[in-house]
Amino acid sequence: MQYYIVFQNQAYEESRIEGRHEEISEGDMIFKYEGGAIVAVGIIGKKTYPDSTLQQLDIIEHKLQKKLRIKEVFKEIKELMNQEPSPFAIRWTQENRFHKLNEACGQFILDQIRVHNQF
């Protein structure tokens, strides 16, 4: 499983993927970030072709009952992303794009979300 984050105020379908579309697979998770917090988690349900556009992805979105405020866990995220380019550092210029997170960071965010949410 891979983890992605998208900084947006739009639907997933209006976003673009950084990198190659064929990297996205069924079961991958997408964290939706708005206004300083992760507000939803999307799970890729299926992909029709290796060159799928976002409109061809079946994304099952789970809106969070309690948002995860990134400011509250930023220190931990920064440490987990230390060895790799952090999408949080380039957020302002890369809005509406899917950014890949490393496994440790993605799992940490998911664990933090699960503390207050069920899906």
Automatic annotation (TrEMBL):
Question: This chain belongs to which protein, by name?
Answer: Uncharacterized protein
Q: What is the lineage of its organism?
A: Bacteria, Bacillati, Bacillota, Clostridia, Lachnospirales
